[in-house]
Amino acid sequence: MAKRKITNELRFLKARIAKLQRMERTEESMNDENIEAFEQSGNEVDGPAFIDSLESDVTNGENEELPLTGRQQLKKFREKFVKMENELKESRHLNKISKLEQQNKDLREKIKHCELVAELNTIREKVAKIGEEKQREKEYTKYAPIGDFEAIFGRIGEDKKKAATKGKYGKRIYTQDTWMFESTSVFFQILSDWVALGIFSNTDPKVLLRRWRSGYRKRHPEATAQVQCGVFVIDGDQMDVQENRTRGQRRELPTKLTVGQSNGHQTLLDRINELEGQLKSLQQQQEEETSKYVSVELFNEIQNDHNELLEKFIVLEKQLKELQQNMTNECGGESVGTSGGSARTQGHFTRKVDLLQGKEHLRAQVQSNFRQNCWDENTSQNDIKIKDGTSLTVHCKGNAWVFRSIFAMHSILLNNNYSSRRIFYYEISLKNMKGWAIFGLAMKQQQTPKDETIRYRPGTYAYEKNGELWINGKRKEGNAGNSYGVGDTVGIGVNLLSRRIIFTKNGRQLDNYELLASSYSADCFFFPFVTLSLNGAGDKIDANFGPNFRFDLVTL
């Protein structure tokens, strides 16, 4: 009976081991509780429990007749069974790892897809920006390709047809002479655009005008004056202008200006030509300074600002054209030879000179943005010594509450739409500092005191030594921990378009992104300034007005 029982037990173990081997090959998930037990005498037997009980019986001597080889085989089967269970658990762990790796792979593919979409959007934005730049370039060739006089004649011919259409309805009757005068004004406007763009920089505008008028007369020999209302001097030549009254009624007026009036007009026009030459020279200086001080990264922004500047000049040219038209109308209404007509004409030319001077001021403002700034010696006193225009040294030991404020030579216009620089910025470095220091931007006026701090005055934006910020003369709270001292480099800047104020320390921008200059200061001129106390004899700071700063302006 004992041998039969062991034989049945061995058969059960072999069957169980074979089943585990099949499950391992097919990688099926299973639990130890679901293994089908071998049936003996109509009862289900748990394999591990049966092996434990059998081993316990052998140990207790209840099965003494069991051969030794049987006990060894039982132990061997038990070890193999435990080993196979461990392998099954390891297989389950490997399956779990495989699933996690597949999920990780899917996530990587999704991230890569998102990066591709973001890159595609960036490319689309660049394409749109290039399209806008090309459209902006087309605005300067709306009359014709630059330098193409034949295309300009076609444009002026279209204007002539439109003028004739107006005449049919009795609004105004245009003749060849009146049209020629207005066409000349159009040519002046186009020519001024070309000169502003740097075209024909080596060609005299007088030569270009004579060349155009000569070609016009050859193509339109019928355009001759029949009834004159005045003689206008344009670049040394006389042009006859006729003004017809409505419904064909003509009114003859004196045909010549007096010698004195002609000389006065010639003087004014010479002054105009001189101002145009100055504008051209300022433009060349601007281009040279741009190549020195402007980096390649800011070139596109400078081009955009330059285009806005040219649009302002075009507006001024249109105003000049309106003055010429008003002058022509008044010549048709009253005698040019009379003193009243002469004074009115003289006034128009004076306004024209004023407008050109305004253009010269705009050019000078653009140029000033590229000049190297420095401290103004006229604003310093004997207590502060200036060296090389940028270095300040306190050489007088005085009271701790006595201050001296020094301003820079050149200013900035906060709401400056004509500037070719988008950001105005400068830095100071503290070489030696025992006293107190404040620096920033402020409006310099005649009543501005130079023997006290000016941080609390309206229109002042300052950075104090203890880290406090002053915005429009008021303290900005919550800026603790940004104090500066010896060895530090601090800076202040302003966006000329958005009026946003920035402060930096050692090449890092402070977390004050919401600071804006007030609208009260929108059209004011600001000067860099530094306020030092006199109790720190030997204190020294160095200013850096550009173009190379410790803080990278390209990051703005």
TrEMBL record:
Coiled coil: 3-40, 74-117, 265-326
Keywords tagged on the record: Coiled coil
Any Pfam family the entry gives: SPRY
Xref: InterPro entries: B30.2/SPRY, B30.2/SPRY_sf, ConA-like_dom_sf, Gid1/RanBPM/SPLA_SPRY, SPRY_dom
Stretches assigned to the B30.2/SPRY domain: 353-550
Residues annotated as signal peptide: none
Protein name as annotated: B30.2/SPRY domain-containing protein
Species for this entry: Heterodera trifolii
